[in-house]
Amino acid sequence: MSYQAVPLNKAYLLLNHGPTVMISSAFGDKRNIMSAAWSTPLDFDPARVVVIIDKQTYSKELIEASGEFTVLIPSKKIAKQVLQVGTTSGRDIDKFTEFNLTTVAAKTIQAPLITDCLACLECKLIPEPHNQNTYDLYIGEVTAAWADPEVFSEGRWHIKSDQKRSIHYQAGGEFFAIGDSFHID
Amino acid sequence: MSYQAVPLNKAYLLLNHGPTVMISSAFGDKRNIMSAAWSTPLDFDPARVVVIIDKQTYSKELIEASGEFTVLIPSKKIAKQVLQVGTTSGRDIDKFTEFNLTTVAAKTIQAPLITDCLACLECKLIPEPHNQNTYDLYIGEVTAAWADPEVFSEGRWHIKSDQKRSIHYQAGGEFFAIGDSFHID
After folding, report:
1. Segments forming the whole domain that contains residue A30
2. A154 close contact with B: CB closer than 8 A
3. Which of A79, A182, A185 lies nearest to residue B175, judging by beta carbons?
4. What is the pLDDT of residues B89-101, one digit of tens each?
5. What's the total number of domains in chain A?
6. Given an 8 Å threshold on Cβ–Cβ distance, is A13 in contact with B170?
7. Could you read off the pLDDT of A10-49 as tens digits, one per residue?
8. Does a structural domain hold residue B182?
9. B13 chain-A contacts, CB cut-off 8 A
10. CB pair distance less than 8 Å for B156 and A170
11. pLDDT per residue rounded down to tens, chain A (185 residues)
12. Which of B16, B17, B170 shows the shortest C-beta gap to A157?
């Protein structure tokens, strides 16, 4: 599987249904990845996203130092790793190595993508110190977007296998998998 | 069915899995309701949420005038109304009447709740003019939270019927219903 480019003005569709995401970051020779249940699209064109990143995290340091981050939409196949990277700190370990995450180079930023995602967004931070300091709220402009063409192409989701469902975190290790699509006329 | 109170520090759990929401508002004798795919929890305690509300909307006017709004988590049963209130303007019609939405009085704000939701949050706007004007981004502090005890109680989701699934908007009238829960140790 390799990722296929998604037009930037369609990038919001990758997050529109509210999946739990992972966020990777890198600065110099440091890198990290965390999980985040709290994110939302913010605008279509320019494509922008909001992510909430706790002030205690190592990711916050790397994102503020580099001005970049990814938003990765993991498949159910790597739900265990989503929980693992969400409950450990990158100050103590290299989570990519520790949890067997295979990286893929991003195109527009230094932070790595990983395999087994449904989609990946590369983002440049739009600095907003008040939001970052007061609310842990980070705004990014999407500079590249990618999707697994088996589940998303031509601006539409078409998820057909259980292991390629998006996952939606509840609490305490409990997730929802996304269910079936339905249409309203 | 009647709603049961949810402790405020558990309110984030109602939004954590990324459902599409409706947002109601009221000011004086005016009221409105819209749909929003773009929202996220922002903090646990005090419980805060972010919603993105386009600057052209009637809802924006009522929310800025009243300093209040709701975040309603509709069940699949009312998916058609979610689409309807998302594609019409409250400047032209009273959407509650037009689309047969039954209101329920909120406890801490004037904006009404509606029936057939999985959960409802009452919010007071935390004014942030820069975010509102630049990004259409609104921050609310949750002042009351409610859930249908058939699907959420004791801090946990337990959705058992198809019509009481949360819905997750894609585009063009296409939704995902939330799927099954799974646990990772």
Report:
1. 4-177
2. no
3. A182
4. 999 999 999 999 9
5. 1
6. yes
7. 999 999 999 999 999 999 999 999 999 999 999 999 999 9
8. no
9. 170-171
10. yes
11. 599 999 999 999 999 999 999 999 999 999 999 999 999 999 999 999 999 999 999 999 999 999 999 999 999 999 999 999 999 999 999 999 999 999 999 999 999 999 999 999 999 999 999 999 999 999 999 999 999 999 999 999 999 999 999 999 999 999 999 999 999 99
12. B170
Within a domain: A183: no
Among A167, A166, A122, A120, CA closest to A141: A122
- Would you call A16 and B43 a contact, using CB atoms and an 8 Å cutoff? no
Residue contacts between A and B (CB atoms, under 8 Å): 150
Interchain CB contact of B161 with A (< 8 Å): no
In this complex, is the C-beta atom of B126 within 8 Å of any C-beta atom belonging to chain A? no
Between positions 30 and 49 of B, the ones with CB within 8 A of A are: 37-43, 48
Q: Which CATH number belongs to the domain containing residue A35 in this structure?
A: 2.30.110.10
Most A CBs within 10 Å: which of B16, B83, B151, as the mutation test of the A interface?
Answer: B16
B134 inside domain: yes
What 3 state SS string does chain B have?
Answer: CCCEECCHHHHHHHCCCCCCEEEEEEECCEEEEEEECCEEEEECCCCEEEEECCCCCHHHHHHHHHCEEEEEEEEHHHHHHHHHHHCCCCCCCCHHHHCCCCEECCCCCCCCEECCEEEEEEEEEECCHHHHHHHCEEEEEEEEEEECCCCEECCEECCCCHHHCEEEEEECCEEEEEEEEEECC
- Does any domain span residue B185? no
pLDDT at position A12, please? Answer: 98
